[in-house]
Write a structure and sequence with these properties.
The protein is α+β, with helices and mostly antiparallel strands. It has eleven helices and 15 strands. The mean pLDDT is 90.
């Protein structure tokens, strides 16, 4: 097994690195990495339904879709992420309990009463500190998880809080659990870097033919290409979402009401319906037509609104109020 601790804290880079090792090497891998503050959504999720978009924009937090399924997670520098890439037999590849055992062994050695619970969670005193997800590729499985060590849980809650009633789709929804940080359960203080080193050493000493791996210049170039073509693009991180209906109602200080319904597929607005006492009905079809084939993206919608004279279509509604209704 080849073992590698990433020197990068770029979320897009580290998630691209996982896919690169999975699809371009025949070796088994064990990876450790920390990411900058970011939100990582599952492959089959509707990104907008999982995040508090206003907070994400205000805090300039990166949003990245990963290759595996499962729910949305928050990463920051108080978070340690691990990834196993392993060959196996068809039908026997997915085994969350088996592949998380080395992590539990290290934590238990540190006096932390961590255990495996449910389908894919690691917990301490009934509170979750790690969730796991996987992706099967040919005869290999990539299983990765995140460990809350000293993460900002208040920030996590703000960024992932969203009104699910706005969206109607068949996407997989995240299930929020009670969570905890590992550092709160240590009898003797340990730094996150020390924990990473202990996990790495445990893998190296207990796994046959394991050794450290170092990225070559070619590796770095290929991973960066994958970042630029996939993991840093709106099309993957937002547009890949399953088709959905978006519904919202806003009320202006002037007492005007606007009810919005959008039909969105691959992140693109296919159809729009508007109702309310602020609409000028004789021209509203013309307005709606201007938004067809527009990405359901805050910046793109804001740009489109700025190019339109709203007084031709609405009474007493500002660009900001309309933007709030469409995003």
């Amino acid at each position: 097994m080849l073992c590698y601790i990433s020197e990068s804290n770029d979320t897009s880079y580290n998630i691209a690195m996982e896919e690169y090792f999975l699809k371009n090497f025949d070796d088994d891998f064990f990876l450790l990495y920390q990411n900058e503050p970011s939100i990582v959504v599952g492959k089959h999720q509707n990104t907008l339904a999982e995040i508090n978009l206003t907070e994400v924009k205000n805090q300039r937090v990166k949003v990245v879709r990963r290759l595996s399924g499962g729910g949305t997670v928050f990463h920051d520098m108080g978070n340690l992420n691990y990834c196993f890439i392993l060959k196996g037999n068809k039908g026997e590849l997915v085994n969350f309990r088996k592949h998380t055992q080395p992590i539990l062994e290290v934590l238990n050695q540190l006096g932390v009463k961590a255990k495996f619970e449910g389908r894919n969670d690691l917990t301490i005193d009934g509170k979750k500190f790690s969730g796991n997800a996987c992706h099967v590729y040919k005869n290999k499985v990539m299983q990765h998880g995140t460990m809350l060590f000293s993460s900002d849980l208040n920030r996590l809650n703000k960024l992932l809080k969203v009104n699910p009633l706005k969206f109607k789709d068949k996407a997989i929804r995240s299930i929020r659990s009670r969570v905890t940080n590992i550092c709160e359960h240590l009898s003797v203080p340990v730094e996150l870097k020390q924990l990473a080193e202990q996990i790495l050493n445990h893998i190296l000493t207990t796994t046959t033919n394991s050794k450290l791996y170092h990225l070559s210049p070619e590796d770095q170039i290929n991973i960066q290409k994958l970042v630029e073509s996939k993991y840093d693009t709106w099309e993957w991180n937002f547009g890949y979402s399953p088709k959905y209906n978006f519904e919202k109602l806003i009320q202006t200080p002037a007492g005007k009401i606007l009810e919005v319904q959008l039909w969105v597929e691959k992140g693109i607005i296919q159809k729009m319906e508007l109702l309310g006492n602020c609409i000028l009905p004789e021209k509203i079809e013309e307005f709606k037509n201007q938004f067809e084939n527009t990405p359901h993206d805050l910046q793109k919608i804001e740009e489109r609104i700025a190019s339109i004279n709203l007084k031709e279509y609405f009474n007493d509604i500002s660009p900001d109020q309309l933007l709030k209704g469409l995003s």
